[in-house]
Amino acid sequence: MPAYAPPRSAARPRRAALLLALAGVATAVLVAGILIASPWSDDSAGTASGGSPTAAGKDPAADAARMLREAADTLEKAQVLSYRGEFARDAGSTTPFDLQTTPGGWGRGSLGDEGGTVRMLTAGDHRLAKADQAYWKTRGYSGDVLDRISGQWLDAASDLPEIDDLTAPLAPANVAALLRDAAGSASSATAAPTRVAGRAATLLSTPGGSFSISDSAPRTLLRLASGTSPAATGPLPLADGTDASVSVLTGTDRDAFTTGFEQDLTALRTAVDPTVTFTTVGTARFSPCGSTRCTARFTLQNSAYGSAGAQASADSPVHAEITIDMTLDGRKIKRCAYQRTMQPSGSVALTCTATYTAATSSDHTVRGVPDAWARAVPDDELARLREGFAKGTTDGQAA
């Protein structure tokens, strides 16, 4: 505690100083009590900007605004933020989530749903999810489609729109904007002392959200929660029921995020768009066919639907991965693979020729089995995502 210097106008300066010194312990307890009751004092909150301490309760709104702005400044310097908490879903229930995200919106994490765990990935404009077969079965998938998507990344726009509802507001730039927005209306904020992960902090409750900001410098956002009356304009409001701790990833933790994200990008080569299905048109033809070779001919058509069930627009091409497996008497003899870009509800004609040796003394059966699925992230888009993330990791904007 700074040494006490009584004012020059004190009636008995030397005796007053002596009495205060003798009562130092009691005075310290009393002062600590005042500090606990008033979180605005820089003795409890620190002087993050290096300025002189502010007298307790002198201007609570100004102190709140300063803390919020300083926390926003710190947030904008972070390369990767980590969140862990919960948010509200249907019928007011809450679900746990964790998310690591960058200023550029590159994020990876997981959320709980239907008793299982769903991994989530945000890359550019894409929102993707990955889960096991049991989970997707509870979402209504079955048959070949269920087998196709189990354990694979898929476009989650139709099945899990809440991924975007959750992750977009948690982008560091948006959270920093929320803090600055709260600073602009700090007169309506209330404050209370708190602790987050053992660190002393001040909880600032505003209509747009509640923010626990460290008392020590630099001011750091340690926890956030959604508000009761978010603004109709400005930054995206936090998803309903959001309540999460916040930390900055550095060193090996940040490196692990970068490595993991790059691996996830590689896995997007097999990411599925589940809103697209394929059917054969007409009857398959096998011609010419003989004792040494046979050509199968198929026409496939896609049915592409948007997230609301409406047929997709013509400017959303379907990137199809197609195979035709040829068998002779049940034995696989050839696989033909194709990549085709199709218009929604468009069709494509394909042929597959297999060569073999078959005895002419008996009959044989040649079959062709087509299979097709739509990619959520085509090659050119995947290359763009790789470039965007790599650029961010080198210029400090993504990892």
User: In percent, how helical is the residue content?
Assistant: 25-40%
Spatial gap, N to C terminus: 41 Å
Strand order of the largest sheet: 6-5-4-3-2-1-11-10-9-8-7
What is the rounded Rg? 31 Å
How many β-strand runs?
Answer: 18
Number of helices: 10
Provide the succession of SSEs: HHHHEEEEEHHEHHEEEEEHEEEEEEEH
Helix-strand category: alpha+beta
Taking pLDDT < 50 over at least 5 consecutive residues as the criterion, the unreliable ranges are 1-56, 307-313
* Main beta sheet: 11 strands, antiparallel
Tell me what portion of residues adopts beta-strand conformation: 25-35%
Shape: elongated
In terms of quaternary structure, the protein is single chain
Mean pLDDT, as a whole number? Answer: 83
